Amino acid sequence: QVHVAESGGGTVQNGGSLRLSCAASGNTGSSDCMGWFRQAPGKEREGVASIDTGSGSTFYDDSLKDRFTISLDATKNMVYLQMNALTPEDSGTYYCAANTHYMCTWYRAADFEYWGRGTQVTVSS
User: Fold this and answer.
1) pLDDT digits (tens, 9 = 90+) for 16-47
2) DSSP of 30-69, one letter per residue?
3) What angle do CA 110, 77, 91 make, to 5 degrees?
4) What is the C-alpha separation between 58 and 70, in angstroms, rounded?
5) Phi, psi of 92 (to 5 degrees)
6) Per residue in 55-64, pLDDT tens?
7) Distance between CA 109 and CA 36 in Å, rounded?
8) What does DSSP say about strands 78-83 and 68-73: parallel, antiparallel, or unpaired?
9) CA-CA distances (angstroms) from residue 45 to 48, 88, 95, 107, 108?
10) Among 93, 95, 51, which Cα is nearest to 73's?
11) Which residues pair with 69 in a beta bridge?
12) Could you give phi then psi for residue 70, rounded to 5 degrees?
């Protein structure tokens, strides 16, 4: 079992930045891949980015990679998502998730077995 918990959400103005944090606990050694997903009201959940915890390789939705950066601090079992140049379209609930069995991708939500409760991001225009 892996437990993940997000933090760092909030309200920011158009063009601003936020850094989300994800704390992993439990059997973190089994988490081969950590990912960030988001869901806006009335829309489907979508992948944002992921990181292979072994190699450090990162994977992104191409439309976000110039503004978002995923990173890992393995010593603290923390994963971060730095988000810059935010727009109202980035608003939504952001989720951290752990994938312990499957190839690390940024988009296959079904491969992530453990999910946090989410943190709300609101970008005001």
Assistant:
1) 999 999 999 887 777 789 999 999 999 999 99
2) G--EEEEEEE-TTS--EEEEEEETTT--EEE-TTTTTTEE
3) 55
4) 7
5) 155, -175
6) 999 999 999 9
7) 9
8) antiparallel
9) 10, 16, 9, 10, 11
10) 51
11) 82
12) -100, 140
Q: Strand 119-124 vs strand 10-13: parallel, antiparallel, or unpaired?
A: parallel
| Size of the chain in residues | 125
CB-side exposure of 9: number of CA atoms within 13 Å? Answer: 20
Amino acid sitting at position 79: V
**Exposed/middle/buried for 44, CB within 10 Å: 0-12, 13-18, 19+?**
exposed
> Strand pairing partners for 80?
21, 71
